[in-house]
Amino acid sequence: MDRFTSSASRLLERVRPFLRLKNLRLLRQRSSDPGRERYRRAGLSASATLIQKALTIVISFVSIPLTIHYLGAERYGVWLTISSLLLWMSLTDFGLAGNALINVISQADGNDDRRSAQEYAASAVWGLIAISATLTVVAVASFPFISWSRVFHVSTISHHELRLACALTIGFFLVGLPMNVQHSIYCAYQDGYISNLWGICMNLTSLTALVVVTMMHGGLPLLVLALSGTRTIIAMVNIYYIFFHRYRWLFP
Question: CA 77 to CA 74: how far, in whole Å?
């Protein structure tokens, strides 16, 4: 027991310097030392990531008891499928806004070459816009011929409600696709914590909207609006902030 106490005391003495307020200032004050500044940004990004992931998990768990009591078995099954699809589709960038974009913009920034950075960002944005436009044409042409009741194997949900919920799901995905460059741009400039802060804002807004809709006993279209509509609006504001305020030289 004495050996454990002495070991714990030595460990506490080693950790104590990192707990002082003057060291915690690195998380909120810019440093002229590039090395310290990188550590500061990494710490902010890690902290914001933990909060964002925690909120995502909370929304997943909270949405179950909020919606299952009034939606019914079939509606809840459709809602679970749609919300899962929205989550997976939000990660889609067709390889145009991932690590490749981070690497090329970071390299351009290291060389103080804003022209190349702007060209890389423009290529990613316009490429995603072209894909989104193509998918929009396909969706508009094929949507009237799809029997969504058969797709989801449901019989108690009205055709209009199911059709509107699916249309909103596809619409928000297509609108949000070109905006998936946000996280890559922030990471390329070592501002990943800003991207995570926007993600936290999205999650909090979506959770609030979800609670309001469930209190109103809203149907599937309103649930899609609560989960994805709020995220899309905040993503638009974020895109405006990126290209018109923080990284104006990247405007495509």
Answer: 5
**Phi, psi (deg, nearest 5) at residue 189:** -100, 20
Structure tokens at 135: 């998918």
What whole-number distance in Å separates Cα of residue 213 and Cα of residue 81? 18
Q: How many CB atoms lie within 10 A of CB 174?
A: 18
Q: What is the pLDDT of residues 68-107, one digit of tens each?
A: 777 777 888 888 888 777 777 766 777 777 788 888 999 9
Interhelix angle 192-215/230-241, rounded to 10 degrees, is 150
Residues 6+ apart with CB under 8 A from 206: 59, 226, 227, 230, 231
Residue that has been written with the tokens 């460990």 in this structure? 11
Task: Read off the pTM.
Answer: 0.74
User: Which DSSP category does 111 fall into?
Assistant: T
User: According to DSSP H, which parts of 111-242 are helical?
Assistant: 114-142, 148-152, 159-176, 182-188, 192-215, 220-224, 230-241
The distance of Cα 232 from the centroid of its chain, to the nearest Å, equals 10
pLDDT tens digits along 213-244:
888 888 888 988 988 889 899 999 999 999 99
Residue 105's Cα: distance from chain center in Å?
20
Contact status, residue 195 vs residue 187, Cβ threshold 8 Å: yes
232, 176 in Cβ contact below 8 A?
Answer: yes
Nearest to 62 by CA among 233, 227, 229: 227
- Please tell me the predicted confidence (pLDDT) of residue 237: 94
CA atoms within 13 A on the CB side of 116: 13
